[in-house]
Structures are given as structure tokens and as C-alpha cells.
Amino acid sequence: MIDPRIKLRHIACFLEVARLRSVVNAADALNISQPAASKTVQELEEFLGNALFDRSRRKLFLTPFGETFYRYASTSIAALRQGIDAARSGGEATTVKVGALPTVSARILPTAVSAFTADDPPGVHTRIITGPNNYLLSLLRTGDVDLVIGRMAEPDVMIGLAFEHLYSERVVMVVRPDHPLLSVSDFNLGLVEPYQVLMPTPDAVIRHHVDRMLLAHGISNIRDEVETVSNAFGRSYVRQTDAIWIISEGVVAKDVEENQLALLPVDTSETTGPVGFTTRADTIPTLATTALMQAIRNVAAGFR
Fold first, then answer.
1. Pairwise CA distance, residues 263 & 165, whole Å
2. Residues 225, 230, 236, 238: is their CA dihedral positive or negative?
3. Mean pLDDT split into 10-residue runs, the chain, 304 residues
């Protein structure tokens, strides 16, 4: 038997604090007071006989025990949520919830969702949620999304999750079509140093690929670096300035095709990485989720 003292509110509060790394933010999200959230987490730690969080730093981080408990607790909540959705709708979930990174939001999903909604039975809806990879994976673990589409995360983050490779994609450098660097006959990567650069944020999946590429070419001091995951800001800023935008190819492929942006002539093949589905390893997708995944596979086949 599960310890009867452990209630659903304990698990829900723990998962929210773990996701946000903050008792204050978790309390706001759960619409409870900060003392109530703190007491709930402390009660759970007392019942389990171990500390769940390392409180020695400004932000809360899971202890090794907390990491283990998080994987099982998030899976349990996800399974419960899936069961409730299925029971309420007579055996089939009515909403397919997709966590999407920017690269697939621009390149793959529009065509796939259009095909899916045209073929799927009435009453089944699609919800697209965007954000940083870590945020989307936390939603996946708790069942708030059914799958995540984008670059594969690092191996230590993939525990309890499964990945299906759809295609591979590189990082590119883009500028406005009349940028001075496009007229340089003997271009090399060192020429970007005098220019402002838009970089992916530190928690972006592609960031370590970008850092490694720049360091390999002796570039360690980016001028006036701007970190952003906003596609709207990136497009607008680069079109108005001489800045260079380092971003996944899929985000800007259409812009380049329509001559709104231009690729710098640099070999970035070393940044190539797998793009695909990330799902929970211990749950079976609903029929509607499976149908959407197949629609995405059909579109992705053209990029292999």
C-alpha cells in the first residue's frame, strides 16, 4: 500500500516546485500561499524520509533521491491524467497536446497539422505548446503534453523517455540579404567577430553545438551578444541591423527561400543533430496522437 499520508496535492506541489525550481513560483501557479506550498513539500519529504531538494543555492535543485522520485511521480501523474481524459471522452482523448521547439513549429508542423485536422474525426483538437526544451520535457513527464518534437536532448535528460529520429538538421548563420559579409569573396568564420551576434540561450538544445563550433574556429569573444529564443525578435532585428543570427535551419528555411534572409557561406555541418519525437517510454499514445505522429512522419520524410 502507498503511505496513506501522501495525497495528490503533495505530488502536484512537488512536481510544480521541481519544474519551476521555486516555491514562490509554484505557489503562484497552484494558486496557493507560499507557506502552504513550503509546508506541503516539507510534509512529503518527512513522509518519504529524504530531502527532495537541495536548498543550498538560490534556485531549488532536485537531490539524487528527488530526481528518482520525480521520474516515478511524473509518470504516475501523466498516466492518471491520460486515464481521466480517456474515460471522460469515452475511450479517446479529445485534445492532442504537442510540445514543439521552434525549428519544427516553422518547418514541419503547419503542413502536418493541416493534414491531420483534415483527416481526423470531428471533436479531436490539436494544442501546440512552444518553449525551451527543458520546459517542454517537464510538461511531457507530467502528461501536460503527449509528445515533444524537436532536437534530441542530452542523454542524462532522456531517462524514462524515448526518442524517434525523423531527420537531421544543422545550425546556420543568417543575415539580411544586403549584408556586407555576403559580398566578401574569401569568407571565413573569423570575419563575424566585428558584428553583433544573436545566440541561442544557454538552455537551448543547440547552444553547446554553437559554442563548440565557434571555439573550434578561435572565436571566443562575441561582440554585443544577444541571447534569444524569440523567432519574431530574431527575424525583425536581423532585417534592421548588421547582426548575425545563429539559429536552427528549420526556423529560417522559408525566410531564406523567399529571400527575406540570406545564409552566410560557412560550413556548419558539425552542428548537425537529430530531430524527432520525444515521448514517455512507459505510456501508449492515444489513437489521435498516433495519427498526428504519422502525419508528421509523412512531412518529415521530405527532409531526410
1. 26
2. positive
3. 85 89 89 92 92 86 88 78 66 76 85 83 80 86 88 82 90 94 88 90 87 86 84 92 92 91 91 90 79 88 78
Closest by CA position to 216, among listed 269, 283, 288, 149 = 269
Enter the C-alpha cell of residue 150: 524537436
CA distance 53 to 13: 13
By three-state DSSP, how is residue 13 classified? helix
Question: Which residue in 228, 248, 56 sits closest to 152, CA to CA?
Answer: 248
The rounded distance, in Å, linking the Cα atoms of 158 and 29 is 26
Kindly provide the b/e burial profile for residues 26-60, where b requires at least 16 CB atoms within 10 angstroms of the residue's own CB: bbeebebeeeebbebbebbbeebeeebbeeeeeeb
**Which cell numbers in the block locate residue 138?**
517537464
State the pTM of this model. 0.68
Q: ∠ at Cα 303 (234, 237), nearest 5°?
A: 5
6 in Cβ contact with 13 (< 8 Å)? no
Q: How far apart are CA 248 and CA 226, in angstroms?
A: 16
